[in-house]
Amino acid sequence: MMWSWIPQNWSQIWHLTWENLKLGVLPALYGLIISLPLGVVAARWRWIYPPVLTVVNVLYAIPSLALFIALIPAFGLTDTTVIIALTVFSLCIILPNVPPSVRQAATAMGYGTLRRLVTVELPLAIPVIIAGLRVSVVSNISLASLGQLIGVSSLGYLFIDGLQRDFPTEIYVGLFFVIVLALVCDLILVAIRRVLTPWQPRRQRRLERRLPLRRVTA
Amino acid sequence: MITFEEVTKEYPDGTVAVDALNLEVPAGKTVVLVGPSGCGKTTTLRMVNRLVEPTRGRILLDGQDIREQNPARLRRGIGYVIQQTGLFPHRTVEDNIATVPVLSGWARGKARDRARELIDLVGLDPALARRYPYQLSGGQQQRVGVARALAADPPVLLMDEPFSAVDPVVRASLQDELISLQNTLQKTVVLVTHDIEEAIKVGDLVALYRPHGTIAQFDTPERLLGDPVDDYVAGFVGFDRGIRRLSFFPSAGLELSPAPVLSADATVAKAQATGEPWILVADDSGPRGWIQATRLGDHPGGTSLGGLTAEGVGHTFRAGIDSLRAALDAAVLSPSGQAVAVDDEGRVVGVATFDELRAAIQAADAADTAGISGAGRAREAVPADNSKKRPQAATPESSGSESSGSESSGSGSSGTESEGSEPSGARP
Asked: Could you tell me the residue range of the domain that residue A165 belongs to?
């Protein structure tokens, strides 16, 4: 471990961390933007849910490197390729899980469909949405390092460079920053959820436990 | 007024939930739909606010077909309370209550003020206004549910098993509260329950359903207990309906005898002179106890009654206020077989024997059967005055509801959540 290497290369580490952060967060947000309407539609017309889920699962099964390579002809060796691929892995169909009694009460009080969706169902889905984002963001941050294999800069650079130069310090630093980045993002998401859902009992967050952990695809 | 005209609800699989129903819910009255599960009572209720659309027939609200109105607007004029409360978990108590006013376009401040009024009306602690539903006990949540339904002051209130999910003590206090609210607000209430006791307690009229969406009997609770149309109804209202029906007969007509009542300083000789088999010793604070006449002989004639051992009174009833059921109960529990009547301050006003009770019951029964309103409430469907002043029965429910503050302790919520304990049964 060569500690002096760190301050000497600080600006590069910082730059790579920032790139890695972008590759982790943006796909998760795009994934959410695509998944949310799908979830709303699937909650409304239940028969849509099983086929959509099957398609999403098949997409998860594609190795990420294979997906990068498949996208290169269209988007080249760019950020876009990595972001699109990771967006695919961030799809997470969330069914707004509103207790039937709450839905019924809302209807019976004179809510229209759209207003009920926006002011009742979506706010109640926040815990599940954030739980989904946590899984996506953390797995994307780790998957983003693979982007380096097609030349898109991320903390993955430190792994490849360290390996080629037989310089373990660089690999350790890369690993450390990936983990710290993932942890920090996760904590921020938890904090956001706390702020947005003061109405949740502190101890039991049953909604989240219902969401199965997604397998990280490599 | 809500009118059902030949209303049928048939599901695509052929199940008939409601079968050619004709029913009239008079304005300002509480009509209870009661029956076994799957009898169509909830379907009937949900057709009123168009959560369920009838297959055939029509439903009129104050003479207007409900299908002519936009469903959302129709629903804002109809309060709705359900068993699971359906409170919005992400909104505070006051915002939950303000839901319909806000939907109807009130300014937020005005809607909040209205919510505060209702918090007071349903007997909730104002400190709960900023809490979230998960922080409330079951009984408190149900009160919020009722307040929310009443927020926009709708003329009609639909209640679907509103009190089924809370424990018996809380349920009794919520029922009492509903009756007293109804006395002031006079909403047109349709309440669904599977509990015949609840139906009899809160209903001005009760519609008892048969299993497949037809009504077996639509009548006042007194008539349902006193004159069931068939064995099905008789079976449903229960085996002790004769005694329960006495709840509807006031004790005002009961003849009270002051003869056996003596003060503590009266002498044994005076007691013997009355010729009564039992002597009730009483003072200004109330009855002290019964002494059997045969035991008096053991003591010199000059002994004052206060010095003798007396047997407990058991149970008293308030003359003219409580029902004949309470009086009968007092007689059954009394060692002398005589019911002790007291006034509002608890002072003894007289006693009644079984013979006098029987006479009073027969008189009340005769008056009721003759259709004279001698039974406190008219048996005809729509009495002119809307007050639901009912003689109070000495049932376990009503005695339970008198213990105030029992709600939060009874509902089993944990310490912090119930700290704003409710002034439950405390309201008169």
From this structure: 5-209
